[in-house]
Each structure stands twice: as C-alpha cells, then as structure tokens.
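Lecture notes, continued. The same structure-token format from the folding unit now serves as the input rather than the output. Read the line below as a description of shape only.
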C-alpha cells in the first residue's frame, strides 16, 4: 500500500504545526479526507479513522459553543481513534483545548497558512492525495500529448518510438515521458501518464544521444502529466496485413483495470507516422463527440 507522511503535507501546503510536532512521520494511506460531524455528537458507526480529519468553520464554531466538559468528551471521543492528523482551515485562534488533546494523544494538529474556504481546501487536498496515493505501474514506451490528448506509444526496442515523438514535438506537441512511462489509476475510468522524475524532459534518440527537449525547444515542448486517451503500438511493416476497412473495430489495451482504446500503426520508410498519429488523435476526438466518418460516408451513399 502506498503512503505519504504528515510532514509531506506540511511542506506541500505550507501548514503550521500547532501540536504533535514529534509525530509528523505518521503515515497517510487514504486518498480522501473526512470532515467529522456526526462523530462530534457520538455517532461512530462509519468513522473513517485512517483519513485526515478536516475541521472547518462549522466544526470549530460547534466546539467553541460547548462547555469545557462537553468539549473534553466530544474531542476525546475522536482523538481516541488516532487519525493521522487534524487540519484546521479557519485559523488558530481559540484552539488551546484542541492542541492539548492532540499533544496528549500524539496527533499532529495543523493549520492552514491563512484561513481558507473548507470545501475548496478539501477539493485541493483530495486531488493531491489521489495522485500521490494512486495505484501505479511502469511500462516501456513513450507518452506524448497530441492536440491535448495523452497518447502512449509502444513497440519493440528500436522500432522508432522516440524518433516519432521527436517529430511530433517538432509539430508543436508535447513530450511527457520517454523510455519509462509511469501510469497512475486515478479512477476506474481515468489513467494518468507521467515520468519517473529521473527522465523528466529527456528524450533518447539513436545516433544522436540524449536531448533535453525543454532546453532544445522551449517549455512548450514538455508537459508534466496527461490523461491517457489512446494507446498506439508501433510495429514493423508486414506485407499484406493492413486492411482497408472504412472503420476499424475498436480494440482496447488494459492498464491497472482501465481500458484504453488501442490501435496498431505499421512502420515503413516514407510513411508519415507522426501524421498518422495526429490523424488517430483527431479521429478519436471526433468519435468522442459522436461523429463517425464511415457512417457519414455510408449515409451519403444511401442518399444517392
């Protein structure tokens, strides 16, 4: 199971530590946060204890209105479950009682640098956690963003994946990863492609060597991550294997349980592979909009 540490949150979001300074190594394994409400009134049947607990204006105002003894009971009931940390989004005023409980139980109490809207902060934090804790895998290939769509280029070593990516970069598209592509599952339908940090911005070209696409072509040549929309396998030319059907039957490649539309493009000297990839990306986009060139063509024939 993937995990991050509370101290990672402190650095990422510039959080102030009010209590539990010695426990910032606590692990966070859940990609969603929780905002305790029913728990403050004693209902714990579905309390997600492994999630970060967010305290916004409603929760803090509720606690402020309680007597000292009531606060002790309500907060004590929650800290007893030892969640990884508490984050307060409304500022640090009047939190002495909360700080006391967190210090006693060894739970980090964190506060946003400036008061923030709780719902907006939760959205931002959830997005960060989902990416950091997402199930992931590594594949050999190239990831490139073409017309705003993430495309995986696969194929045998030496087939020309990186060279094709270089041509696409020259046409204004963006490299995401070369050689090692990291795939992260953000949801049952969403696959994110990115690099492994070490190879960030680098493209390896046979006979040329390693190039840094940002240094060579500017910031527009690189993108840190992209949602994968299409999988393309580059294969060596095989005579008499390509068909001329008006529309290819949909095929899919599965990664981490997510199905991605997949096509094969055969390579041959003089064939504009980069242009074919652009055409495949445009065709995929039109299909997503409900348009089929083959259906349109057949409709015209039927009208004659």
């Amino acid at each position: 199971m993937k995990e991050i540490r509370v101290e990672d949150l402190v650095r990422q979001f510039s959080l102030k530590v009010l209590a539990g300074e010695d426990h910032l190594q606590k692990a966070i394994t859940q990609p969603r946060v929780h905002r305790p409400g029913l728990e403050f009134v004693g209902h714990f049947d579905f309390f997600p204890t492994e999630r970060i607990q967010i305290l916004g204006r409603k929760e803090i105002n509720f606690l402020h209105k309680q007597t000292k003894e009531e606060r002790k009971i309500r907060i004590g009931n929650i800290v007893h479950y030892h969640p990884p940390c508490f984050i307060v989004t409304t500022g640090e005023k009047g939190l002495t009682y909360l700080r006391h409980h967190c210090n006693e139980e060894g739970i980090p109490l964190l506060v946003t640098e400036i008061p923030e809207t709780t719902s907006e902060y939760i959205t931002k934090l959830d997005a960060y956690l989902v990416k950091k804790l997402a199930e992931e895998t590594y594949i050999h290939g190239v990831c490139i963003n073409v017309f705003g769509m993430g495309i995986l280029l696969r194929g045998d070593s030496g087939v020309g994946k990186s060279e094709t990516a270089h041509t696409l970069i020259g046409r204004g598209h963006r490299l995401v990863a070369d050689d090692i592509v990291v795939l992260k599952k953000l949801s049952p339908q969403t696959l994110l492609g990115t690099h492994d940090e070490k190879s960030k911005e680098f493209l390896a070209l046979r006979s040329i060597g390693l190039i840094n696409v940002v240094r060579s072509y500017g910031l527009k040549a690189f993108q840190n991550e992209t949602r994968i929309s299409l999988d393309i396998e580059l294969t060596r030319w095989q005579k008499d294997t390509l068909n001329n059907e008006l529309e290819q039957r949909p095929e899919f490649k599965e990664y981490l349980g997510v199905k991605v539309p997949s096509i094969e493009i055969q390579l041959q000297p003089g064939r504009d592979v980069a242009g074919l990839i652009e055409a495949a990306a445009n065709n995929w986009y039109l299909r997503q909009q409900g348009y089929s060139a083959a259906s349109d063509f057949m409709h015209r024939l039927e009208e004659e």
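Point for the exam: The mean pLDDT is 92.
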